[in-house]
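Internal tracking record. Fields below are filled automatically when a chain is submitted to the structure queue. Please do not edit lines marked as system-generated. If the sequence contains nonstandard residues, flag them in the REMARKS field before resubmitting.
Queue: standard
Priority: normal
Entity type: single polypeptide chain
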Amino acid sequence: MTDPADARSVAFERWWNVRDLGGLPTRTGGATRFGVLIRAASPAYATPADVDRARRLGFTTFVDLRMPGHPPDWRATAPDVATVGVDLVGSLNRPPDGSVEQMLRLLLDGCRAEVARAVDEVARLARQSPPVVFHCHTGKDRTGLIAIVMLSLASVPEEAIIADYMASNPGFEAMRAALTAGGESEFMPGAPAAFQGPVSPSGAEAALTFLQESGGAVAYLESGGLSAAAIERSASLLV
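SYSTEM-GENERATED OUTPUT FOLLOWS
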């Protein structure tokens, strides 16, 4: 059986976990829109052919969810590329070690303003210049968290959100194999131990449960400082 995520994945030589958030079912009977939001791993390792392909696809607007301090990549000297940085774990500086479930709940609880800002920036840029690519390092944890919030806003059922979350594992394994074979001394430097392996359904379930306990994605984003109008803009983005 073909994995539905395959139809949403965009293949590159050395850019992994690039996946459109379109084509997912919604509770209203429709589907999320293609060509608006792209989730991905860091494009820092992209080959020249990858960069050309990204430009042809219109992947030139990025939201970088990583901490500051990463070496500049090809985007730094590309006049046609715009990158906005949102340090998703800024309030925590560096998350303490714990299980993936604990870590995701900790990020949602302790970094409400950062999560809200990331969602707002993604939505703002996607309305101005779609598609928008949002990414962290491997495209599964911080990126997965923002995808969970965005898809919850779009009324995507939990089982489809979890399936999208799990679809990052093949790309993660391919990225790890490629970079460690290439002599990377640390595949995920500074990352908590819980985030250095593949994802599991329980991680997405923990994040979704936290959103429910917070009153839903809308109430959660309000607690992070987003206005009702900004939340509505984000909620209508994919539908």
